[in-house]
Amino acid sequence: MIDAPVLERVLTEALRHGGEFAEVFAEDRSTSSAVLDDGRVEELSSGRERGAGIRVVSGETTGFAHTADLTEGGLLRAAEAASAVARGGGTGIVAVGPLVATAVQERGSDGAATPSLGSKADTLELLRRADDAARGSGDSISQVQAGCGASRRRVLVANSEGLLARDQQARTRFSVSCVAVGDTGLQTGFETAARTMGFELFDEVSVEELALLAAGRALSKLSARPAPSGELPVVLAGGSGGILFHEACGHGLEADHIAKDASVYTGMVGQQVASPLVTLVDDGTVGSEWGTFAIDDEGRPAKRNVLIDRGVLTDYLWDYLRARKEGRSSSGNGRRQTYQHLPMVRMTNTFLLAGDEDADEIVAQTPRGVYVAKLGGGQVNTTTGDFVFGTTEAYLIEGGKITEPLRDANLIGNGPEVLKRVDAVASDFAMTPGTCGKDGQSVPVGCGQATLRVTGVTIGGTAE
Amino acid sequence: MSTPIAVGTADVESGPNGEVPEGPDALLALAERVAGWARSGEEVEVYVARGHETEVRAYDGEVESLTSATSAGIGIRVVVDHQLGFAWAGSLDESVLGETLAEARDNARFATPDEHVALAVPDGVAAVPVDLWDERLAAVPTTKKVELALALEAQARSADPRIRQVDAADYGDGSVEVALVSTTGIRSSSRKTSGYLSVGVIAGDGEASQTGGGFSVGRGFDGLDPDRATEDAVTRAVRLLGATKGPSGRSTVVFDRRVASTLLSVVSSALSGEAVAKGRSFFAGRMGERVGDLVLTLVDDPTDPRAYGAAAYDAEGLACRRNVLIDAGLLSGFLYDTVSGSRAGTASTGSAVRGGFAGTPGPGCRALTLASGPEGFDEAGVLAAVGEGLFVQTMTGVHSGVNPISGDFSVGAEGLMIRGGKLAEPVREITVASTLQRILQSLVAVGSDVEWLPGVAAGQTLAVGDMQISGV
Fold first, then answer.
1. Which terminus of chain B, N or C, has less C-beta within 10 A?
2. Given CA atoms B246, B249, B254, B260 in this order, what sign does their dihedral have?
3. A120 CB near a chain B CB, below 8 Å?
């Protein structure tokens, strides 16, 4: 995208007025999406943007400017704007470069096949197949929307410490949402598959299966009764249950919250913060999961980081800025939505390691409770640790058996308390993709776990 | 961790390349020029936007970050034989314009022909001018913005001895110009400026910590009120200190203005004519029926200049107008853009909205308010009228627990108990549940304390009866 000598001159300009660190993050991103809704292909959309974000760190202050103009002149102007914060800082001149390309290979340049894009016609065929499958699954399915989105993102990171790294990231996502209509009104079902790969996603994923899952979810809830209200044991099916850990502790372990003492986990490294059954890992290197990448958006290789080891907090998640203050290295968790955003500490794929119990047995040993087959999302206040997560498919457990379907509800708990209440973990590990929002930026993440039980969580249903 | 993944974002920077001169006229001329490239038999709509923004974050007496940015981009819709295609680019470079049009044109070939698909045509409704541009903003030097952010942070830190941390203190401003031109006769341009202060504080120590946020919004730099943002944040955090998990049971719930604004905007998505036409709204098939209590009159009026979302033109270039959606409890109107209006056998209500140049238009509200109770019926008045219940100051998990299709409603909450018509002890880690249908039927009181908050709905204190609380 940009030649090394140009990058060196831009970094030098960025530090001309002072500052200790400068970085150029350049991105060229193209996206395409297609939506079939109400039986019609309603919209194909294509987009393209490219540009660079330049930051200058001077003491405690970061200056940031971005530009869509990738010529040397455009980059120099952005560097000048970003350096404004360092003016008068008087920290002396920092020598830049020479830039040394890191060992990270561009995906597709190391002999592997370049991710394929899939033609518009092929995409529409997938959408139609999903629509047919969903509508064919029951007369009560009254509406179906299927969507397919693909993005290609080439990134380049260069900084004043000599780092030069590139990556090419392809992501593909397919989703189906259904509405079912019955005596009790409308119910909804949703399912999605998303991976860090090209159109090859559809060699691994059946859109018909996604459609049937989404439709089945909506149909089953037509006979759902209101969710209970109050505290009950909760069994979370493998996959989307990982959202619980994303919220209960994942965000609270991000070093930016820790640095501001805005997390319940501040100062707790080395302490028992969870049940011994909990070993939590954040790993940006796993296969082609949704939160996977070769380098983070600060040019650091993705890593596998153990956060909680058998209940003991072992480490936080770090980006460059927070790691620098602690005199350690980044854990490869500096991410940003686009070149127009500053990087911050983010999760990648966050999951609980599998246990050795049998999933069915965990349900059988739960006299009364709630079985959550699918979670839709969640939210946390890292300072208090209070968090919610919402069900999109759940059932009552009565006498050790999964019985009646329940209407959607949020569950609420406190992170450190809930982590200690995990009393059974099965071996049926699965991952699920999601979009994580923080401080106005969204990034793709994965989360996962095996079927597990929490001895008590407050369920926010309407039944008394 | 739940919002669906959106491909493409708004607000892109074009860099200070100076190729398109300053001012709305230059943008209009550009949009006209691109629309002029339409071939015979096709209709083309060109949406061009350009903006500047500054953001300053203060922390612990220093500037944590300073961002300054200029953004520009184009979004093009092409309709050929009732087939729609769309493409966008985060740049106004000459080389990009033609490519984007060609891509939109190609995308149109793949859409299913649909007789209702068309671009907006002028409908004769005159736009009500609203002045949303603060000329003075451009002259405010960055140093003054930095000073204001630092002052906000310092003020919040020292506002109360129980405040132990100010984890975010931000100043931000922006200006955006938009031009919209189509071959069907649409030609509109608009511009607006905005400014905000936002502060987040932490009260208490260790396990007893509580958080609060406050803000002040305006059309520019002048008039932003750090006192108000600070007081709001500090009050919210401090009054939650000592909160315990609240009791379970049925209760009347009073929603703080900010929370009520979120609640209204969720309800509004069920009033979208598109959602209704596609059977994705619990209001579908209920036009003219009683959907709420008599006190419920809901209006969307973007022509009210006080509204944060005020606008002269909608996202298809038609005049924004006042639309009554629920009238004394009777469902009386939906929000339509051109396509959904046609599908419903009616016309656009001037309610198209879009998420910048990277998005396509769809119906939505901009400036919702509820007809209010008697003058002076503020939060204290509503609390006194309610007597006993729960006051909710924060609502969480709206995206994961409120479904505008089924109407299911279940959210996390924190707030204070209401005893003897006054705020009493704080509670946390509880849920509040009902259905949106029942909430509208169970509206007990609507405050007259209208506050135009950022977003699409005004804030007014609301009281709703018979909600289920889950706690201890």
1. C
2. positive
3. yes
